[in-house]
């Protein structure tokens, strides 16, 4: 006997979403209808025009007004919910990424959340913003972790300038982190390097907010593209399946970039050298 073929499972979440749209549209139509009826009864010039064609004696103003007010209140709550969904959902970053990250940094006041992780490629731009914010006194008491792509051997699919830039920026971070003025303000800065080819880069704040962008390939050259990425903001309050997946994906790459790894350096000839004993101590290049 042939097995009974099962049809596709019903996606109840999409069904409920469709029903909610229908219900909301019906509310709006009903509110508009009752508002029109209220205007007909309450506004003399409209009432006089309509009474020439229809008998309005059945309209009860005392009953109509509460219904109109209730529907308007209902729609106000629904609109507020929709606005909250837009504000707390995944969205593209408008303007510069530094301005977007700084705006979120300035909202964090709890010491346990004052941490910034930067998953970069060569940190050409990822280091400039945090350094300026530290200089301006905006990150006192913060812990800042920065990661850069620094392969032990040059990779043919990465831009030639990346290793030298990453090495230079990591060493600049190391020197900056040792400054007395930085330590006296309670700022901890740790630099990390990773050797695997990156797939994503961005920022994570201690409150759970994430700014992320994917690394693209230039198919004509079979190299990683240096084109400016388009960042997406994944707020900490978004618990949707898409946000959870994006957050998990980013954190996995971030954690991989902060593992204890050998720290290569670039000599003046451009050759990658691995100094003896050059290993991160908790990610610190110092």
Write structural notes for this entry.
The structure is a single chain. With 286 residues, the protein is of the alpha+beta class. The protein folds into two domains: 12-88, no CATH class; 92-273, Endonuclease, Chain A, CATH 3.30.870. The protein is 43% helix and 15% strand. The chain has helices at 12-42, 44-51, 61-88, 97-105, 128-135, 161-177, 180-184, 241-257; strands at residues 91-92, 115-119, 143-149, 188-194, 200-205, 210-214, 217-218, 223-224, 232-234, 265-266, 272-273. The strands form three sheets. It has a seven-stranded mixed sheet, sandwiched between helices. A two-stranded antiparallel sheet has the order 7-8. The protein has a two-stranded antiparallel ribbon with strand order 10-11. β2 (115-119), α5 (128-135) and β3 (143-149) form a beta-alpha-beta unit. α1 (12-42) packs across α2 (44-51) and α1 (12-42) packs across α3. The longest helix has 31 residues, at 12-42. The protein is elongated, with a radius of gyration of 29 Å.
